[in-house]
Design brief:
disordered C terminus; 7 helices; alpha/beta; 234 residues; 41% helix
């Protein structure tokens, strides 16, 4: 995970976006708040870490916990996840504040699938509705049930009733965000595969071009977006 970080071009785009009048930029991530703080602390962005467990408003340096500490599920998750890691060479556990992630990128794929299913079954049996399971790219995340990227997206839309919300993402966990936005907003999926998003773009380079065009011609791009739902946007 430590090798997956924003590059200078993305940071420049985010800074330019945050400086546009009438535009608010939110970064919604499964990553820890410490990671987001290290990358984005100098930018005027609203940060949401660990799928919405933590929030740092764009005009503040203080992180706000969105759930009560008593709702943590990590202590009950850790023994099961550590056992799965011991039984699956190449996998490891990344601890979050109230939950955790089980990474298996370096493991045998078949073994990781089998052990991941077993881990999920064990955790659901142990915690039931108290935990939500999020399948990412070669990682399974376990979080308190009351937080999600979808809840963040819904909250942003409700807090800005007169603004168009454009949500972008490439991960399975982003699908919840797309589904929660509603018809008057726009969702964009980066990459191939089935998605609940309104619009698909082919890859990272496409979304970089989109951001550049939005920065320079945002009113025209907004019209394109609203007229291009359910299409392949290039």
């Amino acid at each position: 995970p430590d090798r997956a970080l924003p590059d200078p071009l993305l940071l420049d785009n985010l800074q330019r976006l945050s400086e546009l009048e009438g535009v608010d930029v939110h970064v919604v991530s499964g990553r820890r708040r410490e990671d987001l703080e290290a990358w984005f602390s100098e930018l005027a962005l609203t940060l949401h870490g660990e799928h919405g467990v933590w929030k740092r408003p764009h005009d503040s340096k203080t992180w706000i916990s969105m759930i009560e500490e008593s709702r943590s599920v990590k202590e009950r998750l850790l023994p099961l996840a550590r056992k799965a890691s011991e039984e699956t060479p190449g996998s490891f556990v990344e601890e979050k504040t109230f939950g955790l992630s089980w990474h298996h990128r370096l493991s045998d794929p078949q073994l990781a699938r089998e052990r991941g299913r077993k881990l999920q079954d064990e955790i659901m049996k142990e915690l039931g509705d108290a935990v939500v399971v999020i399948h990412g790219k070669e990682v399974i995340e376990f979080q308190p049930a009351e937080v999600s990227k979808g809840a963040v997206a819904r909250s942003v839309a409700e807090d800005h009733p007169d603004q168009l919300v454009v949500a972008m993402g490439d991960d399975i966990s982003d699908e919840d965000m797309f589904r929660c936005l509603g018809e008057r907003h726009i969702s964009m999926h980066v990459g191939s595969g089935r998605t609940a998003a309104d619009i698909s773009v082919r890859g990272v380079e496409s979304i970089r071009r989109f951001l550049g065009k939005f920065i320079d011609y945002r009113h025209l791009v907004r019209d394109d977006l609203q007229g291009g739902r359910s299409t392949q946007w290039t």
